[in-house]
Design goal:
This protein has 268 residues and is α/β, with parallel strands linked by helices. Helix content is 29%, strand content 18%.
Length: 268
């Protein structure tokens, strides 16, 4: 499925989970914070909740900056719509390389899967979501099998699906060159490396209007679809790289409506 600008009007807030549409507010509830080993994570949940699906979020920041608190409207919106929400920290460059960051994400996910039931979440209905560098890390760990039992993936705007192709196109510069300085590691750190050979969890891929994002997202979506994976591709050319993450959960946001429709179909 591809969602382009012509079809955005068809994807309205009516796609929210049945009976759970609520006021979309920028205020954020207070999380509980836990140490999962190399870093900390925040769990947002409702008192008395039980068996709710979970969104496990990995922030962006060029693999170098950012924190688990960079969540904008996501916690309030997702709690209001029947989810638990988790946001993680992971070690940053230059303290930790990208391979170590991916291992941190996998460790955090295992901690959440083992403990989320006591916070009202369902460990068998965890959706991994990431933006920018976090999008790359979710795609990498999710496709290589590092997030066992993950129910779905939400990939929000990165160029780092195929690092070798990125280098061939002249894109291995700036933040990408600093994050991936060793060509010998490009293949192992590219999500596309792990696509072929099996069907993957349902995957939602969004791209902004930033340079070449559409072409790279379309190519990656095509590779996934060839395995029989159910893929939703969202044309986010109305968004900047930052707003495609920041606006999630705000009133009238088209990406939010599309993601909620995808989750409803993926989680049952």
């Amino acid at each position: 499925m591809t969602i382009d600008r012509r079809s955005l009007l068809l994807v309205s807030m009516a796609a929210l989970l049945p009976g759970q549409a609520a006021a979309l507010q920028l205020r954020s509830p207070s999380p509980e914070t836990f140490d999962y080993g190399p870093a900390k994570l925040d769990i947002y949940s409702r008192d008395g909740a039980s068996g709710l699906p979970v969104v496990f979020f990995v922030h962006g920041g060029a693999w170098r900056v950012g924190s688990r608190g960079n969540v904008n409207a996501k916690p309030q919106f997702l709690l209001d719509n029947g989810f638990c929400f988790v946001s993680i920290d992971y070690r940053m460059l230059p303290e930790a390389d990208v391979a170590t960051q991916a291992a941190d994400v996998e460790l955090a996910y295992r901690y959440v899967r083992a403990n989320i039931a006591r916070h009202g979440g369902d460990p068998d209905r965890i959706v991994a979501m990431g933006h920018s560098a976090g999008c790359h890390l979710v795609a990498l760990t999710g496709l290589r099998g590092g997030l066992p039992g993950v129910a779905a993936l939400i990939l929000d705007d990165t160029r780092a699906y195929d690092l070798e192709a990125l280098a061939r196109s002249g894109g291995m510069a700036g933040v990408y060159a600093r994050a991936f300085p060793d060509p010998a590691q490009w293949r192992a750190l590219s999500p596309v490396t792990y696509v072929e050979g099996r069907k993957h969890p349902p995957t939602f891929i969004a791209h902004s209007r930033a340079k070449t994002r559409a072409e790279e997202a379309q190519a990656f979506a095509g590779r996934l679809r060839a395995t029989g994976t159910r893929v939703t591709l969202f044309d986010g050319s109305a968004y900047s790289h930052m707003s495609i993450n920041r606006d999630f959960g705000t009133e009238g946001d088209a990406l939010t409506a599309a993601v909620m429709a995808f989750l409803r179909a993926s989680l049952g």
